[in-house]
Amino acid sequence: GFDVPCLHTMYLDKPMQGHGLMQTIARVNRVFKDKPGGLIVDYLGIAEELKEAVAQYTTSGGKGRPAYDQNIAVALMKEKYEVVKGIFHGFNWKPFLDGKASERLGCLSASVEFVLGLEDGRERVLGHVRLLTEAFVLSVPNEEALKIRDDVAFFQAVRSQLVKLGGGGGGGEEGEKDVDHAVKQLVARSVTSNEVIDIFKAVGMDKPDISILSPEFLKEVQKMPQRNLAVEVFRKLMRDAIRKEARRNLIQSRKFSELLEETIRQYQNRTIEVAQVISELVKIAKDFKKAMSRGEDLGLNEAEVAFYDALETNDSAVMELGDDTLKAIARDLVKAVRGSVTIDWTLKESVRAKIRTLVKRILRKHNYPPDKQEQATQTVLQQAELLCGDWAEQDVV
After folding, report:
1. DSSP string covering 187-219, please?
2. What distance in Å separates the CA atoms of residue 330 and residue 323, rounded to the nearest whole number?
């Protein structure tokens, strides 16, 4: 995890001791090819401090081998390299290594499509490329590692795309940041070019309105040649849109989150074809957009619609109240809850109890079915917590 560039000279002009001194010297003490060591230029005279630090950190009773056998790392690297190559058997990634910037970008999207079309392809790439990366870092600057560094860069790029699409880390993303950073320094070949790159064209799309809910975007997704990639991109964007809406409408976000996950589950289990999955996702997106704009048709604002949905309007007993009554309940709920907002209301049970009482009183006032009141109250409270967070922030501002 130590990512300081290779240095040969260190100038010391301030007092240092112990761990800090040892870490500073470690910045220049690495040997590499014709570099036998590092040079410390001492302006202050730290000989005694250095003796104490060296004594402390070399006689502390540590056990185990002081260094690893690089040949072992090289052997593991070669083994994992063959495994990963096997996963990509039949796919030509040469354009990523020596093509133009646009060709490299197109190759990358095609490679993700290839992996997603394999049985457990995502999980295999995430896991094996991680192990290859770890072994590669330990193997550099061995010649065997340098021979495959461009291929490792490609595998890393594909893995990175899979992670961004929500594929998980295959072993803990937080713990791999240092390794990923190190390998990028060693093998990165960034997409640099003097040409203007059309990233939409590279993945087979015309330039659409980037909004996930726009008709233009939905049409372009359906036309993407990389069908599996289209599903993954769509899933990520839909999840983000639903997560954003969750702060404003608990019921609708739950509903569409369940629809999305069920569709993706069928896709992953290969119970429905990719084309059918995309059609289902497009339908979910259209329904989601329609649901989010229902307020205009109902004559309710955003907060009122959220409480309207929280009243279990699909229940037959509730529907007997009539739409006008449900709207009136929603408006009363917003007014009552809005007037009870405090900055830390979610932390104070006394305030929560007050709002709970207000909710029950409003439900009884409008003859809400008694056997449904308790469940409706709990749902309304959950929705209130979401909305009140925003309201409290607005009041602070």
Report:
1. H------SSPP-HHHHTT-------TTSHHHHH
2. 11
The helix/strand count (H/E) of the chain reads as 20, 2
Phi, psi torsion values for 356, nearest 5 degrees: -60, -40
Distances (CA, A) of 51 to 18, 57, 66: 10, 10, 20
Residues whose CB is less than 8 angstroms from the CB of residue 172 and which lie 6 or more positions away in sequence, other chains included: none
Residue 391 — very low, low, confident or very high, per pLDDT cuts 50/70/90?
low
Inform me whether the pLDDT recorded for 1 exceeds 50.
no
* Residue 130 Cα distances to 15, 81, 109, 232, 344, angstroms: 41, 11, 20, 21, 44
Give the side-chain half-sphere CA count within 13 A for 321.
25
Query: Rounded to two decimals, what is the model's pTM?
Result: 0.48
Cα angle: 158, vertex 236, 177; to 5 degrees: 45
User: How far is Cα 60 from Cα 76, in angstroms, rounded to an integer?
Assistant: 32
Give the model's confidence band at 194: pLDDT under 50 very low, under 70 low, under 90 confident, else very high: very low
Name the residue with tokens 């004559």: 299
